[in-house]
Amino acid sequence: MAEAKAELNNYRQSPRKVRVVADAVRGKRIEDAIVTLSFIPKRSALPLRKLLDSALANAKNLSLSATLVVKELRVDNGPTLYRRRPRSRGMANPIRKRTSHVMVVLTEASPKKEKKPKTEAKK
Question: What is the DSSP string of the chain?
């Protein structure tokens, strides 16, 4: 099965905060995922929406069908920027500015099979 991929590297927000938004759209159809991201009031919603748009453009270049599903949306740790905060008496506390690597994979939706109604148990 053909897949379309897109990556967002070194996004300057902690992976923990990005995963909250990513969990909301994982496994959804691409249209539903984009609409959902439009209404989520988090900072990471806009970059994830742009990433899905990029993956959708990649899928069109690969001439995949219009029924696409977010198969995988992975948020990993990127490099951490270490800074220091001055404190009293000449001390310094560390500040960790975390980054994220986000990867999305779109795949064609498989046709749903109709479930047969269960027959009543014989008495």
Answer: --EEEEEEEEESS-HHHHHHHHHHHTTSBHHHHHHHHHH--STTHHHHHHHHHHHHHHHHHTT--S-EEEEEEEEEE-PPEEEEEE-GGG-EEEEEE--EEEEEEEEEPPPPPPPPPPPPPP-
